Amino acid sequence: LFFPLVSFAQRKHGSTRKDGKLVDSKTERRLAQNREAAKKSRLRKKAYVQNLETSRVRLQQMEQELQRARSQGIFLGGGGAGGDMSPGAAMFDMEYARWLDDDGKRLAELRGGLQAHLADSNLGAVVEECMQHYDELFQLKAELARADVFH
Fold first, then answer.
1. What CA–CA distance (Å, rounded) separates 89 from 82?
2. Could you give the CA distance from residue 95 to residue 133 in angstroms, rounded to a whole number?
């Protein structure tokens, strides 16, 4: 067996790795910084992947809404009464259909909360979400009025 002769001064400024080799403080600090940078990189990657997943789901929802609007003949001259509709009015009709779907879900959630006797703070949060949902409707209607007054 061979044990390297290391003075106390050398050991004081560094440490030993698992394989027994000495690592000076500069290398030790660099390794620690690399570990920290790798950890931050993994966290950024995780957030990026989650953001991509959210965007993918949102895109799928928008594609479904577009498909539903096309099947209903709402989008860009699908015939019937909507044939001479302005693009702004067509967008409003599509957004309003989405809003109605969301409204049904939110009202069902509110009814469920009332029947389940939720705590006031939880119920308040649900009511606040419903109020924001109606604010969204008013914004949609304001945009429609700017785009097509006679719709």
1. 9
2. 12
Q: How far, in Å, are 26, 71, 75, 145 from residue 84 at the CA level?
A: 74, 17, 11, 17
Report residue 73 as tokens.
Answer: 């003949």
Query: CB within 8 A of 72, min separation 6: which ones?
Result: 78, 97
Q: pLDDT tens across 102-142, in order?
A: 999 999 988 988 888 888 888 888 899 999 999 999 998 99
Q: Please list, in sequence order, all residues whose beta carbon lies within 8 angstroms of the beta carbon of residue 90, skipping any fewer than 6 positions away.
A: 69, 74, 75, 76, 82
In the chain, domain spans: 8-71, 80-151
pLDDT tens track for 56-88? 999 998 888 888 877 776 544 444 444 567 777
Q: Give the amino acid at 133.
A: H
Kindly report the CA angle at 75 between 74 and 76, in degrees rounded to 5? 120
Number of other CB atoms surrounding residue 90 within 10 Å = 20
